[in-house]
Specification:
The chain is mainly α. Helices cover 58% and strands 6% of the residues.
């Protein structure tokens, strides 16, 4: 396509520069985790091509050294292509090929931009296509992020919630359904529910990891593996498994692996579910801590910063609020990924860059938010006496009278208690033949918290 001016000190070349000019859309770039994944793929590819007799030891060594610098983040400023680019991510793959080739040329004392002795396509991209490299990079960067960052953060949060569940298991309170009083529950049981949500979120993510461990590398342009050795894909996967410390394998069906992003869509769905769980948990905490005098006020949240620029002494639930905003962002990211996943046309998906960006952002945000929630909120929660104090005045404890006097009579007692301000026990003493001793046993709130009692 002719000559193109490139900054003299740049490691990238004309292909990259054309993309910079063609896509002046945003300031969004691929994150560090994705660039690292590209470097890992290029290193594994160079070593594999050398083993297969397709790349000299000198070229392999130089390419591997340059790839390691990409992995280590030393060349991040050379990855300059916008996220909103060609849908296959070809511009970013060529950006990597040119950066690694020119750095390898420099290592071999050649001339930058000469394509000698290292060629970006013939050597760095040997046995590959953007169409299998980019989906592979999406998978391994997300897989590593879930494995190394998100699951550990959620495990920490789960542990914190379990500890609070045990701490609060002696605190009786009124349960709520439809925001209305329901039968009693231990505060610890509520937190046991929160811990269970996170535990199951981790299980869903482990299934997503299995999906992401299937890689497209080896399929090249359209899934047929044209221009690559038949052993290339699995050999690269074996090397990536060692590099990542996470097992990955070549897909058994390259055509689906390159024409769709179904695995990514499923992984994003698991991330969205975690986000929904976190929003539910944080909203419960916000409600339970509301007040301190005019709200529910059954727990106290740690005071981490002043809550108002005008109202002295006001403290807001800022940590849960921040997590809810993260959840909203992740849910939005999932919508973008869902639309992107629908954009597989014949043999290739054409929204890979934006799907990659959103998936990795979701992983990063959820990792940070879950860890911060545990450290700055959950660990410092305290129960108040407000929950236990209100149990005897609750109306829903009338439920345990039903087997003894029937539904209608019990409903009448609840109605009278509500209109007079008396307790259920007070009214039951007036309206039934049950003794105070019997009512103490029947209306014992602790007996209502264990099934079968």
């Amino acid at each position: 396509m002719g000559e193109f001016d490139v900054p003299a000190n740049a490691y990238y070349g004309a292909n990259t520069m054309r993309a910079v000019v063609n896509f002046p859309i945003s300031n969004l770039r691929f994150p560090r985790s994705f660039i690292r994944a590209i470097g890992q793929i290029k290193m594994a590819a160079a070593e594999t091509n050398h083993e297969l007799g397709l790349l000299s030891s000198e070229l392999q060594s130089a390419i591997s050294k340059a790839s390691q610098e990409v992995i280590d983040g030393q060349l991040d400023d050379q990855f300059v292509v916008d996220i909103f680019q060609t849908g296959s991510g070809t511009s970013t793959n060529m950006n990597a090929n040119e950066v690694i080739a020119n750095r390898a040329i420099e290592i071999m004392n050649g001339v930058l931009g000469s394509r000698e002795p290292v060629h970006p396509n013939d050597h760095v991209n040997a046995g590959q296509s953007s169409n299998d490299v980019i989906p592979t990079a999406i998978h391994i960067s997300a897989l590593k992020g879930i494995h190394a960052d998100l699951i550990p953060a959620l495990e920490q949060l789960h542990k914190g919630l379990k500890e609070k569940s045990e701490e609060f298991m002696s605190v009786i309170k009124t349960g709520r359904t439809h925001l209305q009083d329901a039968t009693p529950i231990w505060l610890g049981q509520e937190f046991e529910g929160h811990a269970g949500q996170i535990e199951r979120g981790i299980s869903r993510l482990r299934h997503a990891q299995k999906e992401l461990s299937e890689l497209a590398i080896g399929g090249t342009a359209v899934g047929t593996g044209v221009n690559t050795h038949q052993e290339f894909g699995q050999r690269v996967c074996d090397k990536l498994s060692d590099i990542l410390d996470v097992e990955v394998t070549e897909t058994t069906n390259h055509f689906q692996s390159q024409s769709s992003l179904d695995n990514v869509v499923e992984a994003s769905g698991a991330l969205k579910t975690v986000a929904v769980s976190l929003m539910k948990i944080c909203n419960d905490i916000r409600w339970l801590g509301s007040g301190p005098r005019a709200g529910v006020g059954e727990i106290e949240l740690p005071e981490v910063q002043p809550g108002s620029s005008i109202m002295p002494g006001k403290v807001n639930p800022v940590i849960p609020e921040s997590v809810c905003q993260v959840a909203a962002q992740v849910i939005g990211n999932d919508t973008a990924i869902t639309v992107g996943g629908q954009s597989g046309n014949f043999e290739i998906n054409v929204m890979m860059p934006v799907c990659a960006y959103n998936l990795l952002q979701s992983i990063e945000l959820l990792s940070s938010a879950a860890k911060n929630l545990d450290e700055q909120c959950i660990s410092g929660l305290k129960a108040t006496t407000k929950g236990p104090d209100m149990v005897d005045r609750g109306l829903a404890i009338v439920t345990t009278l039903v087997p003894h006097i029937g539904y209608d009579a019990s409903a009448a007692i609840a109605h009278k208690a509500q209109t007079t301000g008396l307790t259920i026990k007070d009214v039951a003493l007036q309206e039934t033949n049950l003794s105070e001793s019997d009512l103490n046993d029947i209306l014992d709130p602790t007996s209502m918290t264990e099934p079968g009692l």
